[in-house]
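Protein Entry — a single chain follows
Next Lines — sequence and tokenised fold
***
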Amino acid sequence: MKIKFTILLLGVLAFSCTERKKQKDVVSKDAQIHSLPFQKIDLTSLGDFKETTENWQIVGGVTINRSKEKILNVIDGNGVLANIPDENAKKNLVTAFDHGDIELEVDVMMPKGSNSGLYFQNRYEIQLFDSWKVNKPTNGDMGGIYQRWDKSKEAGQEGYEGHAPKINAAKAPGLWQHLKIIFHAPKFDDAGEKIKNAEFEEVWLNGILIHEDVELKGATRGGILAEEVSMAPLMIQGDHGPVAFKNLKYKLYSHDRLSFADMKMKEFKYQDKMLPNVDTLVPIREVSTDTLSASMAIGDKVTRILDYQGQLVVPTSGEYIFDFRLNQAGGLLIINNDTVVNRDGNYIIDSAGIAKVALVEGKVPFRLIYNKHNPWVIGFSLYGEGPGIQNLPLHAPSSLAANKGGVNRKIMVEPTDKAVTQRSFLMHKGLKRTHCISVGTPKQINYAYDLNTGSLLQAWSGEFLDATQMWHARGIRQLGEPVGFAISFHGTPDFSSLASEGSEWPNTVTEEGLQFSDGYELGKDGIPLFIRNLGSKIVKDKIEPSSNERKLVRNISLSGDGIIWHKVASGETIEKLPDGSYIVNDESYFVDFSDNSLAPIIRKSNGQDELLVKIPTGEQKVEYSIIW
């Protein structure tokens, strides 16, 4: 027996000091700038690499056959680096530049059953492997830090000190996967003795942090040399299987850091959300400090202003990025007598206060004002990045010790023997959606749906939903947060009555557009069937997990008069593959229409490709799978 719910769409829950004349809102102009630019490796030729064998090619694109192992097909052009080894050509590829500390980002495509590796300084390997269906990843799986090797040990015991990824975030073979890696080279004293081991500070795979602060006592297996050095090239393994790369970029970091000098902090009693002229207030205390921390406020559940003034020590001339964030508080960031970030009012910790500032080597005046006007919460952060200087916190760890209301334990929602649904707000591509339902399944294939626009928002595998920001304390942010490896979809209405094939797709639902009739019904398995009207059409939409793959199967049935369109996907490019499936390249996932009689079309609109299905009048069905 089905349980029927009627959807009730919910509404949204609901200068200062002496620098006022110089105040400028850098945030509004540069909000899109969150970091300094990377150095790109040129993939129009192999000029940024040392000479190698012919297995390495510059091509325009690549595809795979999802049913055949280690097959990589290439398309003429440039912008993609492809490795197709054979018995006569299978050497590694080495960069023309050396690196010490480095931040690297790259997109990689693994054919079915293939294997490769990224070797930092020719010595420390991040494994590249087709690990799509692996349940418990090891150091030899995608994103693993490969093991070291001692051939003198007895058989089966040679490998040691490998590090498996925290979870398997590997996509299906043939999809572009994104790696972001921060590596620190080993450090040596003047006598050449090692004083600090190499370290992978962070390894991100497809947006998931899979390694953090992993120390390496020596080179991993397969590196060129075991002897460690401070500078050496990056190497890509060439002899284990085909692989492709694009968008290869990096930042090289020195040992320089931003710091402070001659810093003093004044503390004031104050409780309004908007700052006064702080220079007219009488402090309750004044101390010298080398620390920026919200925890310096005296007392429990108090309101305060903390006013830090001193010198910012700039190690090298160039452009710097600062990010000043506040936890339900207000503040100002003033550098070289300019208010570069104005957060006067009430801001949450997720709201970035970004400033891009040109600075000259030496000392410049620095001031940070923190208005703790909410007695119940505390916290601010300040990050800084510069030329050859890694983006690092300038605040003390104690400044965010009570971030997000002091949550020490996550409040999780998890399915048991059947699917579970949870209403919440949800972040989607940087925007808060207020009418969402998330569906978690025992198969750990989960998704989120926007009841306002009638669109599939996200899909993810692993644990279901972190409800901490919904239910902890007063639930200020009201957010459900997907847990695990997620991909996002276009988020605009999934169905529309277009005037013609060339009509622009709507971003929102009009009053005359999509209307919910019976809301949704929950089946015995807990999976919702969404029911809504579009004109005289009745649309029934059910999204279910696959039994044995990271895949969602979508079944849509329609009845009534009139032609409507279904937007399946949009992306920077959408290509039809030889096996008849489609690859969507930005989030990078497959759409498989092999069991559907209505063929989709690909069209260009507003600079993006869109995959649309034209649905005729009368009784119709649309079925397809989303694979990632």
